[in-house]
Design brief:
This protein has 756 residues and is mainly beta. The protein is built from 9 helices and 47 strands.
């Protein structure tokens, strides 16, 4: 499926979105019910005295929908302390009649950073940590027939007692209940969690070991089913007696199984029933191992080619719902053609991981941290983070490596002995890694994962070796920088990957990084942005993105990406941008100026001897000044023309483009889509030096996330549109000072009302 299909097809677009489980749609015979609680929260801003009391007057609070950021921010140049305070959220609800006599939990998927939760005035112990889920048993404290109120005092300051804080960190954590919340209703005897581990995947006697973590004290039977859609693949059971929390069921005789891979990311459902409770997860059958010969997926050698991802979005930080998380995974897989992403430097949204599962994108996931290791209590929290991360995510087939060190920290034998031991105890199926920058650091993990920003790279010094950061801060580059810089930025990534391809001792590499991100004032470029990405913070590609894209097979997509801006040549002197690269997977390139063939070139396999698709170079230092003319590039494979691209030589801002990622959204109060704003030439190429403000008018059941008017940066930028909890048509009108206005429409379908 190409990108345009994803953007325009309601069927394809929603196929790549999470669907409601049976427990959420009331279609399951199970007593378990999951009630989403993302609408109708009341936000009081900074902490107010007695705001957790039952009878507190919250009529002046603002009504908000989760995910929510406690402060809306400009996309750059803001005070990074603006969100560092204690804020208050309240949510009123009534217990559904069907929940009478059952256990009721509230599940928070993520709130930044320390949460004190109260139910009807009863306060639970503070939960410290912003990246992993937490739950509280509300049952003893509920009003079963009247109003209940959940109140959250949320401390979003950088507290030194909580990882990743205590030192300086090169990213921002933002604030708010920035992931979803739900009410979970289960019987007294219920399933707390389950880990389904495929075993012997490459043999005929493959099986699934299902570890069922149970709560309650009754006898009964645990039944486990493996399903492929509606088809029952295998079934097994075990007897439960007493209070034993863990019961194991092995499913064998599975018959034909489709392996999960990069190209066929096949998923199966595991359904566990215990008494009147039912719980399910999705798994994939794959064998993923780092070996002395490199990384092997299902017995096939795969050279890993990835980028690091921060969960940062403009304006709202991490507070983006499922669709935006899925979009990022899609960009990494299909726009950048990666096979691996690292969730730097913390566990990220489950929606992002779900997308990686479904798209076939491998993941290295790691615990929160950045260089600093605190004292014993701090380390205890970090060890807890290991357990919380693995218990949440152990069924994702996309995850191939647990990162159990604090990013770029010093050695700490006792601490890292604990993190590795817990990871191996909870999940013996995956190897461990830990991101380091010290070449001679102690290896307690399985894989030596190394940040190396020099060139050439240091040689592998351990049998299992993966490069996890390079380029990045050593060569910050804006999308609209001068030709020499964007070209060199592109080539630095290409040189590293050429070296990685030269030696199977390198399992591959994860460049720093995918997207520009917000950071503190003492990092980055002084405007609270690190311009380290191969895409900018709006997910618009820089020239270096073209290199990553060019490494795919032509059968997947034919790529022809010049690492220069045609309109940026020096017309008064030499006449052109000089000796510049073109990233492509074609065999031969022809370049025309003003309709006349200027030169021909082929991939530079001498300089980049190990890349399958090496960049080509072209000398544009002797271009004719008159006529200047349009640039046309043609790509050939097997002597046949397979791709053509054209770029205007006029230097005129020809049109304003307004491009939504999605044309259909859900009216659930939180669904979003990105809208790209670009000034382009007549061929649709962004005019990198275009400026001006774009005034936006929105009508219908939606609201704007972003600056209005929006000041173009390098000729482009983006805002997001968020739906209200109603159906209808959103109409966005964009007006530029000089160019004709543009209008778009987005259809919003109705979504079920929340039941609590």
């Amino acid at each position: 499926m190409n990108r345009r299909d994803f953007l325009t097809s309601s069927v394809a677009g929603f196929a790549l979105m999470p669907t409601l489980s049976a427990a959420e749609t009331n279609e399951s015979p199970s007593a378990r019910r999951i009630y989403r609680m993302n609408r109708d929260w009341l936000f009081g801003g900074r902490k107010t005295a007695d705001a957790t009391a039952v009878n507190f007057d919250d009529s002046s609070f603002s009504k908000v929908t989760l995910p929510h950021s406690n402060v809306m921010l400009p996309w750059h140049s803001f005070d990074d302390r603006a969100y560092e305070h204690v804020s208050v959220y309240r949510r009123h609800f009534k217990v559904p009649k069907s929940a009478q006599g059952k256990r009721i939990f509230v599940d928070f998927e993520g709130a930044m950073t320390a949460s004190t939760v109260a139910i009807n005035g009863h306060k639970f112990e503070e939960f410290r940590g912003g990246y992993t889920p937490f739950s509280f048993d509300l049952t003893p404290h509920l009003n079963w027939t009247g109003d209940n109120v959940i109140a959250v005092e949320l401390d979003s300051s950088e507290r030194p007692d909580i990882p990743p804080f205590g030192g300086n960190i090169d990213y921002l954590t933002f604030g708010g209940i920035y992931r979803e919340v739900s009410l979970r209703v289960v019987p007294n005897n219920h399933i707390e969690n389950l880990f389904a581990e495929p075993q012997n995947v490459m043999s005929a006697n493959r099986k699934v070991l299902v570890r069922c973590y149970l709560a309650g004290d009754g006898d009964g039977t645990v039944t486990v089913e493996l399903r492929d859609g509606q088809r029952l693949v295998a079934k097994g059971s075990a007897q439960v007696s007493g209070k034993t929390a863990l019961h194991e069921v092995t499913l064998s005789n599975l018959g034909d199984i489709t392996l999960w891979s990069l190209t066929t990311p096949k998923l199966y459902d595991v359904v566990v029933k215990y008494g009147s409770d039912e719980h399910q997860t999705r798994i994939g059958f794959r064998e993923a191992r780092f070996t002395p010969k490199g990384f092997m997926l299902n017995g096939e050698h795969i050279k890993l080619r990835g980028l690091n991802r921060h969960q940062t979005f403009p304006y709202v930080g991490g507070a983006m719902p499922a669709r935006a998380q899925w979009r990022d995974a899609y960009i990494l897989k299909h726009d950048l053609k990666l096979n691996l992403v690292r969730t730097s430097h913390y566990p990220q949204s489950r929606h992002f991981l779900d997308a990686c599962d479904q798209l076939g994108l491998l993941v290295l996931e790691e615990i929160p941290g950045w260089q600093h290791i605190g004292e014993n209590a701090w380390q205890d929290l970090a060890v807890r983070n290991v357990g919380d991360m693995i218990r949440r995510d152990w069924n994702h087939p996309s995850i191939i490596l647990w990162g159990v060190r604090i990013n770029e920290s010093q050695d700490n034998h006792n601490f890292y002995t604990r993190t590795n031991a817990l990871a191996r105890e909870l999940d013996p199926s995956r190897q461990t890694g830990g991101i380091r920058y010290l070449y001679n650091s102690e290896l307690l993990e399985d894989v030596f994962t190394m940040n190396d920003f020099d060139f050439p790279l240091q040689p592998p010094n351990h049998p299992l070796y993966l490069n996890t950061e390079f380029v990045g801060h050593k060569y910050s580059t804006k999308r609209f920088d001068q030709v020499e810089r964007v070209a060199e930025h592109t080539l630095r990534h290409a040189r590293i990957h050429d070296q990685l391809a030269s030696n199977d001792g390198y399992s591959g590499g994860i460049g720093w990084c995918a997207f520009d991100y917000n950071t503190h004032g003492n990092f980055g470029s002084g405007d609270r942005i690190c311009y380290h990405g191969v895409m900018d913070i709006f997910r618009l590609p820089k020239a270096a993105a073209g290199f990553y894209k060019s490494q795919c097979e032509p059968s997947e997509e034919i790529v022809l990406e010049p690492a220069f801006n045609w309109s940026s040549g020096d017309h008064s002197g030499a006449g052109g941008p000089g000796h510049v690269p073109i990233c492509s997977n074609v065999e031969h390139i022809k370049l025309y100026i003003d309709g006349k063939l200027h030169t021909e070139t082929e991939p530079d396999t001498k300089t980049f001897a190990h890349l399958k698709y090496a960049p080509a170079f072209i000398d544009l230092s002797d271009l004719p000044l008159d006529p200047w003319g349009d640039l046309k590039l043609e790509g050939y494979i097997g002597g046949k023309l397979v791709i053509t691209k054209q770029y205007s030589g006029k230097g005129i801002d020809a049109q304003l483009l307004v491009e939504p990622d999605d044309e259909r959204l859900r009216g659930d109060g939180s669904d979003v889509t990105r809208v790209l704003l670009r000034v382009a030439d007549e061929y649709g190429n962004t005019q990198q030096f275009a400026s001006g403000a774009v005034a936006l008018t929105l009508e219908g059941p939606g609201e704007l996330i972003g600056e209005n008017p929006f000041g173009l940066v390098g000729g482009a930028g983006a805002v997001w549109i968020k739906t209200k909890a109603e159906a209808g048509t959103i109409r966005l009108t964009a007006k530029h000072q000089y160019l004709p206005p543009k209008k778009i429409e987005i259809e919003v379908s109705s979504a079920p009302a929340e039941a609590v």
